[in-house]
């Protein structure tokens, strides 16, 4: 099944973009080639751009605190496992403390590294990291794999508190959803959302053998899914067939 996720607000869009970048960075760090580590460094600079938002840290701290207060309200409920509840609250406390302890913007220490900023300034230029442009970077790419990986892990360490907090929040958000099987009629599906509930994320799973691409839109009142199929040129065309998929709404 192919999973598609649709965020209902700008905050969740930012969270999902950061999560994608953290996952890509982790995968590229496992590689051994200089090309893997070149794109790991590119991803690091993308993280730096996204994390530069002035309100990002404050938003995540607020969400951590909100989740902790919500879970605290479940204490004494006989249907809740207290041990698991304590474990999750401890994770939230740890993530909050680590992120709150960071001063300034996330990744600020990287902007004070002249070597990294020289590489960053050239990466925005097509082919701008050639050896004649950045001989020091060319030399770095010829270092042993372990040395390059150590450097990348050291540079990315400043993002670890942000990564831990973000992945924890997204994991808790996804756990709030209950999957339901739905079907599109004539290639289109609509569902009105219950009043009084504020959903933040829609998750859709669809069988890749159907060769369908869902175009998702939504607001606080309803969600809509239009099923499309790529033609021979790759352009998406509307379909008018019945198709089933799995839908999860997370609050």
Describe the structure.
This protein has 251 residues and is of the alpha+beta class. A hairpin with a 5-residue loop joins strand 6 and strand 7. The protein starts with a strand and ends with a strand. It has helices spanning 10-30, 34-51, 56-72, 82-101, 108-111, 114-123, 135-141, 145-156, 160-175, and strands at residues 2-7, 180-184, 188-192, 201-206, 213-218, 222-230, 236-238, 243-250. Helix 1 (10-30) runs antiparallel to helix 2. The model has no long low-confidence stretch (mean pLDDT 94). The protein contains 9 helices and 8 strands. It has 2 domains: 9-172, Orthogonal Bundle (YacF-like), CATH 1.10.3900; 178-250, Sandwich (YacF-like), CATH 2.60.440. A 4-stranded antiparallel sheet has the order 1-4-8-2. Strands 3, 5, 6 and 7 form a 4-stranded antiparallel sheet that branches. The longest helix has 21 residues, at 10-30. Helix content is 50%, strand content 19%.
What distance lies between the first and last C-alpha atoms, to the nearest angstrom?
Answer: 23 Å
Going across the major beta sheet, what is the strand order?
A: 1-4-8-2
Count of discrete alpha- or pi-helical segments spanning 4 or more residues: 9
Tally of distinct domains: 2
The gyration radius over C-alpha positions equals: 22 Å
Helix content: 40-55%
CATH architecture type of the largest domain: Orthogonal Bundle
- By CATH, the superfamily of the largest domain comes out as YacF-like
Average predicted confidence as pLDDT: 94
How would a crystallographer describe the biggest sheet?
Answer: 4 strands, antiparallel
**Strand content range:** 15-25%
- Per the principal axes of the C-alpha atoms, what is the gross shape? globular
Structural class: alpha+beta
DSSP E strands, number? 8
Highest-level CATH class of the largest domain: Mainly Alpha
- Give start-end ranges of low-pLDDT stretches: none
């Amino acid at each position: 099944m192919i999973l598609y996720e649709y965020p209902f607000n700008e905050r969740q869009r930012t969270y999902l973009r950061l999560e994608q970048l953290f996952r890509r960075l982790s995968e590229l760090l496992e590689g051994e080639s200089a090309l893997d580590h070149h794109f790991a460094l590119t991803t690091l600079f993308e993280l730096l751009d996204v994390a530069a938002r002035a309100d990002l840290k404050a938003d995540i701290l607020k969400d951590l605190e909100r989740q902790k207060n919500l879970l605290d309200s479940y204490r004494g409920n006989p249907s809740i496992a207290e041990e698991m509840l304590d474990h999750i609250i401890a994770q939230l406390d740890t993530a909050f403390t680590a992120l709150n302890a960071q001063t300034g913007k996330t990744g600020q220490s990287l902007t004070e590294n002249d070597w990294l900023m020289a590489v960053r300034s050239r990466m925005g230029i097509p082919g701008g990291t050639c050896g004649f442009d950045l001989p020091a970077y060319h030399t770095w790419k010829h270092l042993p794999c372990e040395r390059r990986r150590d450097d990348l892990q050291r540079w990315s360490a400043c993002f670890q508190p942000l990564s831990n907090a973000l992945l924890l929040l997204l994991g808790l958000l996804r756990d709030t959803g209950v999957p339901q099987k739905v079907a599109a009629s004539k290639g289109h599906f609509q569902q009105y959302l219950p009043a009084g509930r504020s959903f933040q994320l829609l998750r859709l799973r669809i069988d890749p053998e159907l060769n369908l691409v869902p175009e998702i839109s939504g607001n606080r009142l309803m969600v809509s899914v239009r099923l499309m199929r790529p033609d021979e040129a790759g352009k998406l065309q509307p379909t008018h067939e019945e198709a089933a998929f799995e839908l999860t709404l997370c609050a």
